[in-house]
Design brief:
The structure holds 2 protein chains of 2 kinds. In chain A, a hairpin with a 5-residue loop joins strand 7 (114-119) and strand 8 (125-130). Chain A is globular and about 65 Å long. In chain A, strands 3-2-1-4-5 form a 5-stranded mixed sheet. In chain A, 42% of the residues lie in helices and 21% in strands. By secondary structure, chain A is of the alpha/beta class. Chain A has 2 domains: 10-93 and 249-265, ATPase, nucleotide binding domain (Nucleotidyltransferase, domain 5, 2-Layer Sandwich); 101-243, Nucleotidyltransferase, domain 5, CATH 3.30.420.40. In chain A, helix 3 crosses helix 10 (250-265) and helix 4 runs parallel beside helix 6 (174-186). By secondary structure, chain B is an alpha/beta fold. In chain B, helix 8 crosses helix 15. At the A-B interface, helix 3 and strand 8 of A face strand 8 and helix 18 of B. Bound molecules: iron/sulfur cluster. Iron/sulfur cluster binds next to helix 7 of chain B. Iron/sulfur cluster binds at residues 63, 92, 94, 131-132, 134-135, 277, 360, 362-363, 389 of chain B.
């Protein structure tokens, strides 16, 4: 099955994350021809299939046109249609290196966890870290902030951009930060400033993880929806932070690139 | 993806004998408690067991019970009970699970060994703080509960070069235990008997070292997960002929495996070191995960902790003192790094896994920059896994699997 499929021209990657499922289809030139993002929910295989079907539709393809399909992410073992699985650490490094082929530090901020990966100039992983078992600095933290302040999640980015004053949220833990936010509200701080403070807190959690050596690349759903984060992180570390196109799709793209490279090896 | 399909690892035949030894150990203690024929001393796992044995005590090791609570996945049910009486979830989860089980009047020993209703009641508690302060607090709880004496040795920690002063201090403290032990056991201290027991402990330790060193063969005939089970007799029966005989048998079996290139992990592709405590409740899934990745965890700080090269029957007190101070856990980071570097060479390792064990900072070496220093010094890749020895509330199976799989993918390149 594998040998027949590698003759085909398209390759797919499905990144089944804890919050969102992402599907990417690439052609032989490694160009994205179809993609889709949906919530993972409780039915991981169903979400993966739905994301894949939508990506195929967007590309104008049928499942039979796709040679190989790789699954990654938290639910990678839950999608039986996949020909192989690979961890999101490897996929994020492949996807990021595709856009920035040099020594890079990749920071992926997902819904439930953060990853920090050092890749050398050849695209090989030198080392990596995942955050501790805590929501601090992840998408879940921002969701909590939005909930506490009764603001729709998608409005956070725009509001933070209207901030005029620095508000610092210093706690390490999401629950403590929730209490801190209430204190700031009581003190009469503006919501725009508090929200920007929350993004600054995410940036601080990142710099605590590991030294950010070389060029820094930010990926994942959080930066995809909140581009202010790249600017804030850039100002904290004093260098420009690179963001690839469609940063939320980088893991799925990496998975697709992996199987397309398998074809080359044949 | 694995190149060689993972197959079920071969079973170690000596395991049946080991099970019998552990069973005999617990029944002997139970009988002594019920018949009051022999005094029982509780001892910390790297404490002066030889001295106790030589003075006629049967020795029980609460840490071993802690590990059984963990391995049977009962610990997490008992920990909250100890938490509720003031023993924090942040402290040793051997302590909290063991105290919780005691308060609940439960022990997994009753499920495994019919007729045993409880752990054996102590006549005396003997600790050594060479590993941590928690053991002293743990034993103090039982001293209050059972109203029995508690005595112990306060060992130096973070020791760089082991100095004569360290040895003298510990040897003096050991000798200082004798009068109380004589009073409780009703038996006079006998130097000849201590020499005999230390001799047997030395023999056990030398054999255990040889067992672990068979893992330097490629492929390795044994892995860390086997080691955590087969170290049982070295912990609870060292100083007896039974332990010596057991390790002779196990060693012969493993040497045969080396000769025939029988691998603990089929298609062994990578060889790793495990630093820190085992995650007792997850031994099997962990072993299966590494097996599926054709990766063998060949050596560990933990299993090596019961190698006591310094025992000398000719000079029992000083040599016991040296052996119990020389231990990895007692030493400075510099000494530990040198030790791990030697392990990397001896066992031909490709990487190190550091277990950042939530409730045992004493057996955790990932919190003061050691992984980074080791990687810088000799380029060995490493990964830190967050977990706990017994408290599975501190462990994320998914995250750990991803981290380990990703580490192997990194090594595959
Ligand atoms: S060394 Fe760690 S696991 Fe062992 S008793 Fe002390 S705190 Fe507990």
């Amino acid at each position: 099955m594998m040998s027949k499929n590698v003759e085909k021209k398209y390759f797919a990657g499905i990144d089944i994350g804890a919050s969102a499922t992402k599907a990417v289809i690439i052609d032989e030139a490694k160009k994205i021809v179809g993609s889709h993002v949906c919530r993972s929910g409780a039915d991981l295989a169903g979400s993966a299939q739905a994301a894949y079907d939508e990506a195929l539709k967007q590309a104008g393809l049928k499942a039979g046109d796709v040679g190989l399909l790789a699954a990654t992410g938290f639910g990678r073992n839950n999608f039986p249609a996949a020909h192989c699985t690979i961890t999101e650490i490897s996929c994020h490094s492949l996807g990021s290196f595709h856009y920035f082929p040099k020594a890079i530090t990749i920071i992926d901020i997902g819904g439930q966890d953060n990853k920090l990966i050092h890749v050398d100039q050849n695209g090989c992983i030198m080392n990596f870290k995942m955050n501790r078992k805590c929501a601090a600095g992840t998408g879940a933290f921002l969701e909590e902030v939005a909930y506490k302040m009764d603001i729709p999640l998608e409005k956070l980015n725009g509001l933070a951009r209207q901030s005029t004053q620095d508000v610092s949220l210093g706690s390490f833990c999401t629950v403590f930060t929730g209490t801190e936010i209430l204190t700031k509200i009581r003190e009469g701080k503006k919501k725009e400033d508090i929200i920007r403070g929350a993004f600054c807190s995410v940036a601080r959690r990142i710099i605590e993880m590991d030294p950010l050596i070389g060029a820094v690349v930010l990926t994942g759903g959080v930066v995809a929806h909140n581009n202010i984060l790249a600017e804030i992180l850039g100002s904290v570390i004093n260098k420009k932070v690179l963001v690839p196109p469609s940063p939320q799709l980088i893991g799925a793209l990496g998975a697709a690139l992996l199987v397309s490279a398998k074809k080359k090896q044949k | 993806m694995p190149e060689v399909k993972a197959s079920k690892p071969p079973k170690i035949k000596a395991a049946a004998k080991m099970k019998q030894i552990m069973s005999d150990h617990f029944y002997e203690l139970d009988k002594a408690m019920k018949s009051k024929t022999q005094k029982i001393a509780w001892c910390t796992s790297v404490g002066p067991a030889e001295l106790l044995r030589s003075m006629g005590f049967l020795v029980y090791f609460p840490e071993n019970h802690g590990a059984i609570l963990g391995a049977t996945r009962q610990a997490t049910d008992f920990i909250p009970i100890a938490n509720s009486i003031g023993y924090s979830p942040e402290i040793c989860s051997y302590l909290t699970s063991d105290v919780g089980a005691y308060l609940k009047k439960k022990t997994p020993l009753s499920q495994v060994y019919p007729g045993i209703e409880s752990v054996p009641k102590p006549d005396i508690l003997v600790f050594n703080t060479n590993q941590c302060r928690d053991v002293q607090d743990w034993f103090s709880f039982y001293a209050r509960e059972f109203k029995v004496p508690i005595i112990g040795i306060e060992t130096h920690r973070g020791v760089g070069e082991v100095q004569a002063a360290h040895i003298k201090s510990v040897a003096d403290q050991m000798q200082g235990l004798v009068p109380k032990l004589e009073e409780i056991s009703g038996q006079k201290f006998d130097l000849g008997e201590l020499k005999r027991v230390v001799g047997l402990s030395l023999e056990c330790s030398q054999l255990w070292r040889k067992v672990l060193e068979t893992a330097s063969a490629v492929p390795s005939p044994i892995n860390f997960f086997d080691g955590t089970i087969h170290m049982g007799p070295a912990v609870v029966m060292r100083g007896t002929q039974v332990a010596v005989d057991y390790y002779k048998e196990l060693l012969a079996e493993l040497e045969e495996r080396v000769k025939n290139k029988v691998a603990a992990v089929a298609g062994e592709k990578h060889r790793l070191y495990w630093d820190g405590m085992p995650i007792w409740g997850k031994l099997r899934p962990m072993a299966e995960l590494f097996n599926s990745l054709n990766t063998c965890v060949v050596a560990s700080t933990y299993c090596n902790s019961w190698i006591f090269d310094d025992f000398d029957p000719g000079d029992p007190f000083n040599s016991m003192a040296r052996a119990y101070v020389q231990l990895f856990i007692v030493r400075s980071d510099e000494a530990k790094e040198k030790y791990i570097e030697d392990m990397v060479k001896k066992f031909k390792l490709d990487g190190i896994i550091f277990h950042d064990c939530k409730t045992c900072p004493n057996n955790t070496n990932a919190r003061y920059g050691m992984p980074q220093r080791l990687q810088k010094r000799f380029g060995i890749p490493n990964i830190v896994v967050a977990g706990d020895l017994n408290d599975l509330r501190c462990y994320s199976e998914e995250q750990t699997k991803t981290v380990i799989e990703a580490f192997v993918e990194q090594l595959n390149k």
